[in-house]
Each structure stands twice: as structure tokens, then as C-alpha cells.
Records
---
Amino acid sequence: MNTSHFPLSRPFKKGRGGEGLSFSQTRLIQPSVRQFLLTALVILFVSPLHAESVSLEELLQKTGAALMWDALGHKGQFSRDGNTVVFRAGDPWMVLNGRQLLPTGTVIEEQGRLIFSREAADTLYRVFGIQKNSSGYRLKTILLDPGHGGRDSGAIRHWKSDGVEIPLAEKDVVLEISLQLADKLKRLYPNKSILLTRGQDVYPTLEERVNMANKIDLAQREGMLYISIHANASLNSKAEGYEVWYLPKNYRRNVVDKSTFSGDSAIVPIINTLWEEEFTHESIRLADMILSNFQHQLGPGVPNRGRREESWFVVRNARMASVLLEVGFITNPNEAARLRQPEYLRKITLAIYNGIREFVDYFEKKGR
Ligand SMILES: [Zn+2]
């Protein structure tokens, strides 16, 4: 066999003279030092990539595998649940569990970064049992925005209980839902960042909320969700039920007349600042997923007021699906009574949670 075509045909034999650290030697590095090296590598390697390649960060996220990298030997080992895959930069194969040679696309080491070809990534997904239909798209961040806060209570209703007036304020209801939701999402998605525009009774300005959303950095194939949570108010005390607002297609900045705006007047100041086109379709899908979960959780007794189209707040980030939820009317006595029950808030939270979950599955699996 003419090995000149395969200059690196024996890349993984340990202890070949002058080849740098073998894996067994690598393992001897102190854990803390190794941790540091790995962290440094991850930081180095996560950066803009070629169109059809996959970042190391994404591979680690998706496979849940650990990487040990031998910088001198240019070799790496992914491991998880007893499976190991060893590769060397430049080689068109990987070695599974020290025995099986897997032909695959190459891994390139370029200016201190590892770049995985789509084929190499697919091989790793197969080995670690990641769904084949995964699109490579990833929802990176979920930003929850509990409406109002602090001096701005939002919709409010006063209850008399034993002669004492007790207020039911929108700002408290939506904060409670948002905190519970953030908690559940953090447990479900330890690798995504779950953020809140406020985690307590304070009032970030609308501009501050929007800036938070627009400042989130997204790499290629990454997306985010912005979910604003409100409770409704109406002069008609019979108005009842939940609704979901999204941004209409072809929205362009235009001035909204406060006197003709029929929705939650508190969101008027953010109208005209939302810029979103690309994700209208995604926002509609997210809205529908949340609505059907509301219906499922809250039952036929609570009116589904449906999906509504309005141009409210701003998101300049094009890869963001955004919706505004009105979970019920504080001004309707029946609904206000329900909104005072922790069990009802738990159901609302669960509905939103399940809607988000469905959306994430859809977003990360679909091909584009
Ligand atoms: Zn509101």
C-alpha cells in the first residue's frame, strides 16, 4: 500500500516520537489547568465560521459531549456516555471508541479555531444520538419582559376584603408569571440564556427593555425570542380572555395615534419602535402555539380572543420572534378573581412554557 496518499494514516498511535502530548499525557494535566485550557479554547474557537461549517460551541451544545484537545498533537477527543470519538485536524476520518474508523469530512484548524465540516458534525451527531433532522439552527436566548413595574402598576383593580382595599395590579401578576416561567425554562434549557427585562418590582423604561433585546448578539443560525407579558384592561367590564399580539407583515415605522389605539395604552409609547419583518412568520407561529396551549390549559370557560396584529414595540434584531401576551382582564371581576389564584397563574405559566417549547422544537428542527 502506497501510504504517500495517506500521510497521516496513523495519527492516533500514542507515543510516536516527537509527536507532542498523547491523550494519556493530556489527562495528567491538572483539572483546573485543563479547565482553563478548555475554556480558552472554547473562547478562541467560537467565532464566525464558513457557511457550511459548524462551530465547536454548537457541537458541544448539541451533542452534550466533552472535548479534550491536545494542542500540540492537533488531536481532539469528544466523549459522552462511554463513547469516544477521536479526530485529528486535517484528517478525513474519526475513530470511534478506539476501534472503528468513521469516514467523514475534515476538521480544519485555522488560526487557532476548529472548523467542523457539515459531514464531520453529522458524524458526531450520529454517534451521540442527536436527531438527524436537526437544522443547525439554535434558539440562543429567550428574553421575558414582564410589563410595567415599580411606579407603573399597569392595569389595577381594588378588592375589598374584610373592609380592607387590596389592589390586584398587572405589574405583580405578570412578574409572578414571568419569574415562574424563567425558572422552568432555565431547568429545561440549561444551555440557553433565559433573561428577564426585570426580575423585581422596578420599572425599566420601554427603551431600556428594547435595548436589552437589540443588544443580544446572535451568531449565524442563532435566533431569539422576545416575549412581553401583560394583563389587559377595558372600560367594558365584560371584556374577558387572553390574546396574543404580534407584529404585522410589512410593518414600517408609522405614527400611532394614541386616541385611536384600542389596546393596552401603556404599550403605546413603544409603538413605532419595533422593526421586524423577517420574523413575522415565526412570531405568528409562536403566537398560535401559545394560544393553543392557553386554550388547553385554561379550558373552554376562558375566551380565546385570538391572535392580533399590531405594531407595538421595537426589535431591530432580525432574527427574533416576538409576541406580546395579554393573559386576561384585570377589569373583569371573574377574570380578576382567577388572576388572584396561584393555581391559575401556574396554568398560564405552563401554557406559555409549552408554547415556547413547541416553538423551540420547530425552530431548531426545521430546515431552511
Ligand atoms: Zn400592560
---
Amino acid sequence: MGKKKNKIYILDVTNRDGVQTSRICLSKLAKTIINLYLNEMGVYQTEFGFPTTHHESNYLNANIELAKMGVLSPIILEGWCRAIVPDIELATKLTKVEHLNLSISTSQQMLTHKFKGRLDKKGVINEMTKAVDEARKRGIKTIGVNAEDASRTDMDYLIKFASAAKDHGADRIRYCDTLGYDDPFAIYERIKTLVQKVKLPVELHCHNDLGMAVSNSVAGAKGAIDGGVDTYINTTINGIGERAGNADLVAVVLALKKASGLKDNYGTLVHKIDLRKTWKISKYASYAFGIPIPLKQPGVGANAFAHESGIHADGALKDRRNYELYDFEELGRGEPEIIETGRMITTGEYGGIKGFRNVYGKLKVKFDTDKETAEVLELARYANIQTQKPLVTEELMFIAKYPKQARKILTVSPVLIR
Ligand SMILES: [Zn+2]
């Protein structure tokens, strides 16, 4: 096998697929902190929200401001909408979004039973290409076209669909295994065939209904690389996503970098991910979502580096490689966490100035004027109204450092229906 020049990028969709999941919520502040963490970790792109949804506008625009300030950089902030012209118009009217993924269903199941005859195969391509043209016209810099339910779409049509997207200037095609229907063998072949025919970089969007989201993602990435294109794996933090979830960010990177058949030829192609940020981002997402990290979660689970049975404990103590494939330090684990057991002063929704000063004093943050102190206290109150759980250091630091953007993120006004 010759030397491969293409790359594997991580495109995290926690702030879109993660938050749209049933019974799961994130405040706009938490979404912002997650974007900052993803950026710190070296994730290439974050699908940061829904630019056609009114309550996202301030959050999205404030995050775009942070990008322009160099705070949220170099990560790419990309929004998700439907591949229809009115969505492109609304997205670019409500927000300053510069990168978009446009989604439309491509499987016969969805054509027949979702569109109910309104759109046939030709109609879908027509709708999609018009949307791509509109996005281009409006200056969108990166356009991804999402084939929803791609894994249940017949190959000839998928090739036709992707070719049309490419002809109209789309930068990527997103292959959505929307129902988690693929398996590693099938997706490898399908992706390789697709990219060899169309020569367009491909995104892999895999769900976990059969427990194979991670394996399908890496198998698809292998297919894309072998087929000669760049590839973008869609992940979410802790695998949170619709139904059984999406491909877990950490597990995908670990699989590429540590698995026997992947690490040397594919793991080296992963675009700069700093796994030492793993612990921090997983813990924060777990807190913000209010969903514990499963005991056996790869890399970050409480048992990922725990040994008890006689032979295992003895072996691990003699040489960690006996029973550990990688080191916990690589994932940013092993640092002691300090938990206050005595008096605790917090600040939040109903906090006052004295408590507030105490909290920020401990974080070594000083405010220049009383006006500034009062302003950040007000923001801390509103931040807590949004999060409805104790504010953590990252959140407190963010509102103190970027009060203008924090104010925007915390401002949500329901649209008046006339
Ligand atoms: Zn999805």
C-alpha cells in the first residue's frame, strides 16, 4: 500500500445531534463551553447548532463573534439546516453563519413515506442543488450536503445525488447512517465505491442502534482514505445522540490511533487531536447534560483503568501493558480532583455581591470597577437561570472574560407570533 496523503478530520455534532435528542438539553452557555473545549482539543469542526431556529440566533452569533476574536479558533463553526432554499435564506438572515450542512432524505423509504409523493428522486436532487446554489450565492464558505438515510439508499442513486452536489460546488457529502443500519464491512465497501466514483470528500455520520457506530465510522473512514479522499467523522461527546446515540468522540479517536489494523496506516492521518483534553471535556459534557458517564465507557469510564480480580490486579501492577492498552495519563486522567467538604460559598440565580466576590476571589479574578463587578454578577445570575445547576469554574471564567458575548448568549426572547 502506497503512502496515503488524505486526512481524517473529526467533526463533532454534540451541539446539534446531541441536543436534539429526546429528553436531553443543554443551555446555550454549556453549548458555548463545549465549543471552546472542542477547539482546545483540536477538533476540526463543530456543528454548533440550528441557524434557522430563533432561540439559537444569539448563541450562534455570539460564538461567531468569539471566532472572529480568535477565541474560538481555528475550529470551524458550522450550522445545520434542511437543503431547501427558504432555510438558507432564513439561516443567513438570522445569523452570520459561514459554514453550512444542508440535509435532505435520499432513501426510497423516506421519499415514499416522508415526502409522500411530494418529491421523487429527481425532485430531491433538484431541491438540494437549488439549496447549494443559494448557499454559494450567499457566500457560504463550506457547504456539506447530507444524504439522510444514505445507508438505506440505493448506490446508483447515491452516486447520482453526490455527483450533482459536487457539480453545484458542494465541498463534501455526508453519508448518514441515520438508523445505524450499516455494518463495518458494508460501509467500507459503500464508501469506497461512492468516493471512487464521485471523488468528493465524505463525512461519516453513524448511529449506534446496532452498537456499531464507532466501528462503522472507522470502517467508513478507511473506505474513504482507500478510495483517495479526505474524510470527516461525525462524533458526539460521550456518544450522546438520537436513540442509542452517535459515534463517541473519544472512542473513535482511540480506535483510529490504537487498534491493531488502524493505528499505523490510518491513526497517523487523524488531524491534530489532543487526547489529553479527553477527561475534561467528557466530565463537563456529562455534568452539563446531567447524564453520568457509563462505568465501562472507553477511556473515560470509572472502570476503564480499574482492576480487581487476582490475576488482572497482579498483572496490571507488574506492568500496566499486561491489562491496559493505553495510559490513563494520555487522556488527561490521574490528576487529583479537589472536593470542598467544609463551608462553601457559591454564586448564582439569587446570589449577592459579597458571595460573588468570594467566589471570583478564589478563582483569582479581579474586577476593575464596581460597575464591572455588578455587571458580571448579573450575568452569573442569568447564567444560572439558564443552566439550573451550580455554575462551574469554566462557566464563571467565561462570563467574566467575555461579558459582551455572554450577555448575548444569555439573551433569549421568544418570537412574537402575530
Ligand atoms: Zn444523526
